[in-house]
Input
Amino acid sequence: MSADAGVFWFFPPLPVLHLVPPVNWRERLRSAIEKSGKKHSAIAADAGIDPTTLSRILNAKMEPTFGTVVRLARAVNENVGWLLDERGFALSADEQKQLRKVIRFLDDTLVGKSPSRRDRPEPNALPVGTADIPRTYSVRGARLAYEASGDSMIGAGITDRDVLFVKPTRSLREANGRVVVCRFDGAEYVKVLDVRGRTRLLSRNEQHPPIEISDTSRFELIGIVVGRTGALA
Output
């Protein structure tokens, strides 16, 4: 009795790669407009442009200024960074709100409702990325752009979703008493810097208490806010 012997090679099937076409900012804007339920004429009016201008922007027949993009983002209640597909803005405004709710729930459930966790301030500065800096602010040293969130700085004239133009600096003396963007414990904030005696981050809304910086190794000054989309109070 004989048996044929042979060598058999097994190659697993190659995975199927699905290529997802990139989504440009105009497609994101169209999606945000549709989701808002507002008419194009109403969005154009809120953004301070003509409906024909909005149509030309959507059809790639016109390149808007950064200020126009900011106003359009506000008109559809969306983040500028998400609209421009900047790094760190993978989630839309609604998705970010839902994520914050989940984080609060996990904090309360898994960590416990200790004062140190419950009273932890939420970050209120989001990097916009490579934004076009208006000349008015670039001549004052602005090189970075951030989007503000929340109402903790309304007393300084900074409202939710204002775009802030920031002059980079590491000098605490230069930034003392000024509106700054900084990083603390890995989170980014727009606050008034106070380094008299001890380092504190002050809000301009009585409902938001100061952030005490007891360990300066966890603090990093990014820069001074020299302007925003509107006059800085």
Remarks:
- The chain has two domains: 25-83, 123-228.
